[in-house]
Amino acid sequence: MRLSDFNYNLPKNLIAQHPISPRDHSRLLVLNRKSKKIEHKHFYDIISYLKKGDVLVLNNTKVFPARLIGKRQKTKGKVEVFLLRKISLNSWQVLIGNRRKKIGQVIEFGKGLSCKIIKQIDQSVWLVKFNQQGKKLELMINDLGFVPTPPYIKVLSKSAKLKKEYQTIFAKYTGSVAAPTAGFHFTKQLINKLKKKGVQFEYITLHVGFGTFEPVKVQDITKHQMHSELAVIHKKTAENLNQAKKQGRRIIAVGTTSVRTLGAFVKRGKLTGGKKWTDVFIYPGYKFKFVDCLLTNFHLPKSTLLMLITAFAGRKLILRAYQTAIKKKYWFYSFGDAMLIL
User: Fold this and answer.
1) CATH class name, domain 3-63+166-341
2) Among 95-104, 106-115, 132-141, 325-334, where is mean pLDDT lowest?
3) Environment class of residue 193 by beta-carbon count within 10 Å: exposed (0-12), middle (13-18) or buried (19+)?
4) pTM score, two decimals?
């Protein structure tokens, strides 16, 4: 399939710049794969589409402020460092947003925090070593860092408000540079109502990497290589999900990250617990072995996320739903509205 098969035109004024409040008052487009029917609801109406015994699978990863703005020690030129992967107590793999970078260069971030460039790992990734480590380094990153919101969100802020907004309410394990945005729509009140109805909640973890921001650059999408991301499914969670599947109950993945995590751990129709780096790429032709329904946001044109949902519901149906959403002026992308695919 060609990259152009996953293109559509979106008016810029439909790109959400901040979340709606309360979160569960966002709009919800309900798409039925069998009947091709499209319904327009609000997210709190999801309770009408879920039944006792359904299982929601949510990604409980937590976003950390991965963007550090510093200055070169000698010239005082501005440098942006984007944290990618923790290697040791004081070493990280990073992106460095400056042409004048070299091994041995020191970058200062203020309040006593600095790092030294140790080596180049590949064309764009570098290894740096900080002058702090462990818990102290983590606290300083949280204090000095900026929320790594996608480039289409124009606010660059390290305010407590944005750090809270760009996070699901069930976020638990720190490690993502981007939020699993389908989970944004849940409130504590809605979760309690769903639990009272008999809907089961299970949590997996996939730490979203920088690759989620990178565009697909090849016309033949099968040639695209996903970046590896750390995924975790606890043994008890796998057992619970396997039991639900065996009993014929619906497994509803909340977000594309949950779909990819389940896909990485399923073998012969059953989930295994564990921890692994995964680069699974889901596009049309993929055989879904565990997911029955999908809750997701509206994604960028030509993105791997759009490819995943077209694999789940069919390219023509999804693009028709997107055109309907544009006509109805839904909000798109991270802080935008939601789609439930049944």
Assistant:
1) alpha beta
2) 95-104
3) middle
4) 0.90
Distant-in-sequence, close-in-space partners of 278: CB < 8 Å, separation ≥ 6: 206, 228, 229, 230, 231, 260, 261, 264
The structure tokens listed for 76 are 């005082």
Least confident of 155-159, 221-225, 235-239: 155-159
Give the C-alpha separation, 43 to 79, whole Å. 41
Q: Which two tokens stand for residue 215?
A: 């565009």
Instruction: Give the tens place of pLDDT for each residue, 247-287.
Output: 999 999 999 999 999 999 999 889 999 999 999 999 999 99
Proportion of the chain above pLDDT 70, given as a percent: 98
CATH class of domain segment(s) 67-145: mainly beta
User: Alpha-carbon dihedral of residues 284, 288, 291, 294, nearest 10 degrees?
Assistant: 10
Nearest alpha carbon to residue 287 among 269, 271, 299: 269
